[in-house]
Design brief:
Layout: E1 2-8, H1 12-23, E2 28-32, H2 39-44, H3 46-64, H4 66-69, H5 80-104, E3 108-111, E4 113-118, E5 121-125, E6 131-141, E7 145-147, E8 160-161, H6 163-166, E9 175-179, H7 183-194, E10 198-203, H8 214-226, E11 229-233, E12 236-243, E13 246-252, E14 258-263, E15 265-268, E16 272-274, E17 288-289, E18 294-295, E19 308-310, H9 321-335, E20 349-351, E21 356-361, H10 364-370, E22 374-380, H11 385-390, E23 396-402, E24 408-415, H12 418-430, H13 435-440, H14 450-461
Parallel strand pairs: 1-2, 1-6, 2-3, 6-19, 8-15, 9-10, 9-15, 10-11
Antiparallel strand pairs: 4-5, 5-6, 7-16, 12-13, 13-14, 17-18, 20-21, 21-24, 22-23, 23-24
Helix pairs in contact: 1-9, 3-5, 3-7
This protein binds flavin-adenine dinucleotide and nicotinamide-adenine-dinucleotide.
Flavin-adenine dinucleotide binds next to helix 1, strand 2, helix 2, helix 3 and strand 4.
Length: 467
């Protein structure tokens, strides 16, 4: 078969690229090595983790806040098997949706491992051992990433596990030890803490979610402590070993003491690495960067080999589904001769704990480092009528604006529905709004979004109304 574009990998980068290519009239194929489409995000990432986050949050509320709302329940129990089953159903519906979209857009889907014979010839190796040869003008590599570990830790995937196994457990852990206080650790840690597990987080840096605005990490830690999570910050893990049903995690404290924790599961969540195995990159002489971990690309996401592009987790930048999607659209439009654009500074970051954490633009730390003069306005959710009504008063919104021009430079929030509310910040910043612009726009009452307006008012001239 001769194609205009072959996409290798069907995650949010790959499937979006394939659909956009097809929309633009390019004859397109997508190769996926797994039995279902959707990649990490749909199968073992965003979607299943959010399904379990939602289920566990319902349980937590039923156990802890329903009574205050005037709802009594007897004999409340967790049916963990049902939670996992529902999560699997959500995943099946979502991955099935991609198969439907491929058909609808007349994209040829191939199940098998894709590899380069040369830059215009791709071999698909199928599960039954047979091979098919496809030729193409362009290739988009969208092979994503896999969990990384520490060199001295053996992942047995039963007791010392990655996020993939943490989404498939058959029991709620008694004591889950997390290595890494980043996004995966805190999202999956809060799932199990809400279901009754003791959860200990061992983090190397001096705050959790260390790459986000520092104030967010501090506030999130306080609220996660309320659901019983404990934190060992500035602690360096030196080992994790399973013996029978027990796991021992050893670490050095900031004072240099050697300590250990014992639990029944250890989730290693110290980041992810690009996945390029079996692509046959050597056959096209492709360069990799970041100590060989990522595929090097230029500003058009084209690799050092003309006509071969790479997107998503396999290239530099945030490892986020929407970043991969944006890059998928970008490359498709570039191949079709358009002039697309991505503003990488305005890709929002979200942590789906409760309260949720969301950010866009520069953090205070980054602005200080760049020497930019800025003003900050904050508004706490405890001053929001909407938040009081729903009993979600933890957290705040912070708006950072240029001291001279009032242009919004960053919005950081922790609070109810922050994941959805950050969209207002993205739109405002994409149109280069000032803090005053946001504060002059009508925000429905009572909504959580009023906190954004109040924070913008606070940044404008310390003019917040409700504090
Ligand atoms: P992937 O989704 O990893 O897809 C790559 C695909 O390529 C895979 O299906 C793989 O099988 C296939 N492949 C690899 N090699 C070959 C080959 N040679 N031939 C054929 N196929 C191949 N991001 C968010 O934005 N929001 C979230 O809430 C979120 N939650 C997450 C939760 C967890 C637990 C995890 C692990 C990740 C989460 N992420 C989240 C990150 C997100 O999943 C990734 O950033 C995103 O999936 C990257 O998309 P991608 O298309 O680059 O690669
Ligand atoms: P991460 O980079 O978010 O966090 C890893 C954490 O581990 C960091 O805080 C780091 O300081 C810590 N760490 C590293 N080495 C350590 C050590 N030796 N001892 C103790 N701590 C150590 O990585 P992650 O949580 O594994 O997530 C991987 C990727 O998946 C991220 O890039 C993230 O963007 C993506 N993801 C996104 C979402 C979301 O958007 N909501 C959810 C899950 C995953």
């Amino acid at each position: 078969m001769q194609y205009d574009v072959i996409v290798i990998g069907s995650g949010p980068g790959g499937y979006v690229a394939a659909i956009r290519c097809a929309q633009l009239g390019l004859k397109t194929a997508c190769i996926e090595k797994y039995g279902t489409f959707g990649g990490t995000c749909l199968n073992v990432g965003c979607i299943p983790s959010k399904a379990l986050l939602d289920s566990s949050e319902h349980y937590h509320n039923a156990a802890h806040t329903f009574k205050t709302h005037g709802i009594s329940l007897d004999n409340l129990q967790v049916d963990f098997g049902q939670m996992i089953k529902r999560k699997n159903e959500v995943v099946a519906q979502t991955t099935g949706g991609i198969a439907f979209l491929f058909k609808k857009n007349k994209i040829d889907a191939y199940q098998g491992i894709g590899s380069f014979k040369d830059k215009n010839t791709i071999i698909v190796k199928k599960e039954d051992g047979s091979e098919e040869t496809l030729t193409t003008k362009n290739v988009i590599i969208a092979t994503g990433s896999k969990p990384s570990s520490l060199p001295f830790i053996q992942l047995d995937k039963k007791r010392v596990i990655t996020s993939t196994e943490a989404l498939e457990l058959t029991e709620v852990p008694k004591h889950l030890i997390l290595i890494g206080g980043g996004v995966i650790g805190l999202e999956l840690g809060s799932v199990y803490a809400r279901l009754g597990a003791k959860v200990s987080v061992v983090e190397f840096m001096d705050s959790i979610i260390p790459t986000m605005d520092k104030q967010l990490g501090k506030e999130l830690q306080k609220t996660l402590q309320k659901i019983g999570m404990e934190f060992y910050l500035g602690h360096k893990v030196t080992g994790a070993k399973a013996e029978g049903d027990e796991v021992t995690v050893t670490f050095d404290t900031p004072k240099g003491e050697h300590k250990e924790l014992k639990g029944d599961y250890c989730l290693v969540a110290v980041g992810r690495v690009a996945y390029t195995d079996s692509l046959g990159l050597e056959n096209i002489g492709l360069q990799v960067e970041d100590r060989g971990k990522k595929i090097a690309v230029d500003e058009h996401l084209e690799t050092s080999v003309k006509g071969v592009y790479a997107i998503g987790d396999v290239v530099r930048g945030a490892m986020l589904a929407h970043k991969a999607e944006d890059e998928g659209t970008f490359v498709a439009e570039h191949i079709a001769g358009q002039k697309p654009h991505i503003n990488y500074n305005l890709i929002p970051g979200v942590v789906y704990t409760w309260p949720e954490v969301a950010s866009v633009g520069y953090t205070e730390e980054q602005l200080k480092e760049k020497g930019v003069k800025y003003k900050a306005g904050s508004f706490p959710f405890k001053a929001s009528g909407r938040a009081r009504a729903s009993m979600d008063t933890d957290g705040f919104v912070k708006v950072l604006a240029d001291s001279t021009t009032d242009e919004v430079l960053g919005i950081h929030m922790i609070g109810p529905r922050a994941a959805d509310m950050i969209a207002e910040g993205v739109v405002a910043m994409e149109y280069r709004a000032s803090a005053e612009d946001i504060s002059r726009m009508s925000h429905a009452h009572p909504t959580y979004t009023e906190a954004i307006r109040e924070a913008a008012l606070a940044a404008t001239d310390n003019r917040a109304i409700h504090i």
